Structures are given as structure tokens and as C-alpha cells.
Amino acid sequence: MRQQIIKFLLSQEEYQSGEALSAQLGISRAAVWKHIKALREEGAEIDAHTNKGYRLIRLPDLLKPEYIGAYLDDYRVPMRWFEEVGSTNDYGKKWAQEGAEDGSVVVAEHQTMGKGRLNRSWESVPHGSVEMSIVLRPKIPPQQAAGINFAVALGVAAAIEKGYGVSTKIKWPNDITYQNKKICGILTEMSADMDHIEYAVSGAGVNANQETFHGELKEKATSIRIITGKSVNRAQLCAMEIQEILRYYKKYIVSGMSSIIQEYKEKSAVLGKQINVIAGAETYCGFCKGFAEDGTLLVEVDGELRRLLAGEVSIRGMNDYV
Ligand code: ADP
């Protein structure tokens, strides 16, 4: 009900009388007032006028399901929210083991142990970014799982572009960058046997409202706020991410890599470029020729074509991070 009230208030620019709200939502005026009071206590700015009724000015800056859900076209997405969690991916895996359905979402205001690939860490500041993981149950062979990474990256990039007009690039396999700086990191983990994926969990951390970065991230990271100069409505961004990720994911599951690869190539930060490949202790230079059907990176090194697996290497530009 809370979500419906928020959604209704969001859709109306004019004041809505208590009567209109109660008729629209099928609850008593006292119940309407209780919800309004609770929303205000959580930080929502709602103007109340004796003769005119209520008008929503601003929602609280929270990623709670009712705020995200208010921006979703289809708000039956199962969601769990945390003020703070170790890693949304770890929670997503636990929830998946307990039976979370395809498309379930874990969100957090802050991850204390956010993870990147290859055991690297992901830094988040409380209420600064959108940290979320989505549980997926794709009916595809595990050999095709890498495509999920591509679909999730395309989904997040589309959400950032649609919502904020920021046109990003994708650094294989799935970092999202803007002018060679990272704006989003994605990590997909899965549980599978030889021929069946039990579940995959894809986590995406999007830098939204950070105004600065420190240490090694100063040169490497950026946020939507830094790029556009405007603050981000995180709940709305998260809702767009969920919708766009699910759109590309479904496309991939139904129609395969060929249905998304063209878009992925157009957004690639590495295709057709000279790149540095970091493979454990070894670093070598190669030319990025493309991507195979199974999501591997095709790199030409000394005239010989190599296929690189996302779980094993990192890519850097010749001079920059990308
Ligand atoms: P890589 O980009 O080196 O291939 P990963 O995909 O594993 O690595 O992402 C982890 C890396 O992302 C960390 O080592 C760190 O350099 C960087 N990172 C961590 N937190 C952030 C952040 N909030 N924004 C941008 N980059 C970050």
C-alpha cells in the first residue's frame, strides 16, 4: 500500500485531497494520514494544505523497495533492502539458495565488503551509490553464462544513458566507464554443475552522488554527479537499472548472443584498440579483435589470436585505466 501511495503522489503534480487518495487507494482517510505521517518521518517532504490536501515534494533518499517500486512499471519485483550489508552478491547467493525467484533484487545503502572480480574490493560510501544485486535463474548451459555479464552491463549503461543522458562505454567484460574512468563495476557469480545453472547473481555498483574520490580511485573513478553536476535520484536510477537489466537479460536468454552483441560492440571501450592484458604476474600488449559467442575476448598477440576468459585477466588501456 505504501508503494501505491508513493506511486500515486509521484504521478500527480496537483494537491490530492485525503478523500481523493482514500477513494483512489481503497483505504480510509485515517489510513492515508498514517502512511503520510510515516513517509514524513522517514524524510519525505509532503506538503499538506487544509483545503487542498497533500502534495509530494521530495521522497527520502533511500533505496527501500517501496521507493524503488514506485518507479517500476511492473512492481512485483521481490526486493530486500539493507542499510548496511557485507556484500549484496553474498546476500543474493544466500537468498538464491533459500529459493529466491528469477529477478529478485538485493539493495543496500552501503556495502562494507563490496567485491570486484579476482578478489578485488569495491568501495562504496553510505547513500552515495546504487549498490544492488539481482538473482537470475537462466535456463541456459553454463558455457553461455558470460553473456549474462554482457546483458547486465548493457542494461546498466542504458539506465545511466536514459536517466541522465550520460553515454558510457563498456570495458570488457563489464566495467562501465566514462572518459576512461570507472562509473560502475559489475560482478557476476554463479552456482552451476556441468550442464545446468542453478542460479547466477549479478551485482552492480553505480557511482551516483559521490562528489570526490580518494586514493587510487581519484584517477580511476567518476560518478553521475561529477559528470552532470546534478544529484541523482537513486531510487529512480535503481528502478531503471532493474528494468533495463531484465530487458537485456530476457533478450539474451530468448535470442542468444547475436541479439545483443552488436550493441555491446558499439559500446565497447576496447574493441579495435591496442590494450594491455594483465594475467597474474604477466602483462603483455595485444590488439583487441572482438568477442566470441561465449563472451571470451579475442586478442591478437604477435600475430597469434588468443581467447581470454573474464575470470582470469584484467584489461588496461595503453596509457590510461581503460
Ligand atoms: P578491474 O577494473 O581492475 O578489472 P574489477 O572489475 O575487479 O577490476 O573491479 C575492482 C576494482 O575497481 C578495484 O580494484 C578498484 O580499482 C576499482 N574500484 C573499487 N571501487 C570503486 C568505485 N567505487 N568506483 C570505481 N572504481 C572502483
List the helices and strands and how they pair.
Elements: H1 2-11, H2 18-25, H3 29-41, E1 45-49, E2 53-58, H4 65-69, E3 79-82, H5 88-97, E4 104-108, E5 129-136, H6 146-164, E6 169-171, E7 175-178, E8 181-193, E9 196-207, H7 217-220, H8 224-228, H9 234-255, H10 261-266, E10 274-279, E11 282-291, E12 297-301, E13 304-308, E14 314-316
Parallel strand pairs: 3-4
Antiparallel strand pairs: 1-2, 4-5, 5-9, 6-7, 7-8, 8-9, 10-11, 10-14, 11-12, 12-13
This protein binds adenosine-5'-diphosphate (ADP).
Structure description:
This protein is an alpha+beta fold and 322 residues long. It contains ten helices and 14 strands. A hairpin with a 2-residue loop joins strand 8 (181-193) and strand 9 (196-207). Helix 2 (18-25) crosses helix 3 (29-41) and helix 6 crosses helix 9 (234-255). The relative contact order is 0.12. Bound molecules: adenosine-5'-diphosphate. Adenosine-5'-diphosphate binds at residues 116-118, 120, 122-123, 175, 182, 185, 207, 217, 220-221, 314.
